[in-house]
Every structure is written in structure tokens, then in C-alpha cells.
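Let's see one such:

===
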Amino acid sequence: KRDDTERVLVFTKTKADADELSFQLRDEGIDSDAIHGDKQQRIRQKILRNFRNGQFPVLIATDVAARGIDVPG
């Protein structure tokens, strides 16, 4: 588990932008993942759980996929 004191939630307009930004960040050594409507619900839930638990510091989401996200802190 990583130190979860600093987490960043980034919103993008499109699913493609979310995936591309996550890829670019990982390519630069920044752990991240993306959630959007093209990912299955169980995958989105796993990604959110991992983000909440501090497994990676940056979550990229489309505005639609981000509805209902509750991250304490």
C-alpha cells in the first residue's frame, strides 16, 4: 500500500482522453488508472477500491463515470 495522503482525481471529456492520459502518466512513471463507461462495473469498482486504498495516486475519470465517487480525505 502506498501513502494515500495525496491523491488526484482528474476529469476528462472523453473515454479516449481518460485512457490516453492514464497511459501517458504510467509511461512517465506515475501510477494511475482510468474509469469510464466502457469498463465493466466490476472493473470500475475494483479500480475505485484500489484508488481509495492508495494503490495508485491518480485516478482519471470521465464526468459521467465519476458520478457517485466518494473518496474520504
